[in-house]
Amino acid sequence: MTLRDALIKRIAAQGPITIAEYMTTALLHPTHGYYTTRDPFGTQGDFTTAPEISQMFGELIGLCLAQSWLDQGAPSDFVLAELGPGRGTLMADILRATATVRGFHTSAQIVLVEASPVLRQAQAEMFKDRTPTWVNGVEDIPPGPLWLVANEFFDALPIRQFVRDGRGWRERCVGLDDGQLTFGLSPLGPQPALDHRREDTADGDLVELCAPATAVMGHIAPRIATQGCALIVDYGDWRSQGDTLQAVRGHTPSDPLADPGNADLTAHVDFEALAQAAAPAAHTKITPQGVFLERLGITQRAETLAQHLRDTALEQHIAAHRRLTHPDEMGNLFKVLGLFPDHAAPPPGLTR
Ligand code: SAH
Q: According to CATH, where is 3.40.50.12710 located in the chain?
């Protein structure tokens, strides 16, 4: 039975499910989930992420984390964690770039928060000479000062969608129409968590909530308030508005209900919600990825690497630099939010 058929059966028996339940099943079902069954990255896969585009991304993130660690007195035992490490490329680039930062490697315990067994396997191959610890969720990250990075992790967390109807809200759900998966609206109900959205919405407007994102922040923020730093990179903006649920397959947008488990499903990240959940840690302004990477010196790094490249390799390298930074590519769509202790300096490249 396909995952689509299993969902149809479940909805026929038990009624419509929320978008969050649909996303969780499609992405992480133990045997048919999108992430549980495959490595989705690269030109042969469904999508490409910044660390897969160029080593420069992970190198600069690594140096940013290491500088923040130095700025906070270089604690001798700390956790270097990544949420949703994919193939492990970002952490591998972070480690290569920071190899000469004295004490950084010997003080770091590497922790990877990863739900997918297939991707854990890919990550294990990436770290043959180091032994990371894998955990299922942020609540399992071992204690200690925490330096953390998450690239395109929060967009994979399940959202719920609500449509404004007078003073109340109706939840957008996945139900059945003529035996096929379809979107529908639940009966009107109060949603206290959305009271603040009455001011900027009108009848018919759709807003999204991502409770798991707030829960993740609730675990990491108090730790970082004491010592550490988090760099959160993702697409989205300060406040979510409108339907941002999207499916991507073979680098092309597709219908989110067409083939659950075989397409990536994401939603834009609501950075305002993350920032509000950052207390008691301080948070930086959200900064476009292009600006952040330029401040960290990506152009100088690109020029240095270019000296060793010719022909197609050089062209690809120049294209990768543009893709990461240009406002028409990832430069503006992707944003960076930093968390840091109120008494410390913000991570390099970001401002309070
Ligand atoms: N950071 C990587 C991969 C991004 S894709 C990169 O930039 O290339 C999203 C990653 O998050 C995958 O590794 C996926 O398996 C993982 N993931 C998604 N939902 C998760 C969850 N709820 N808990 C832990 N990991 C999750």
A: 50-157+210-340
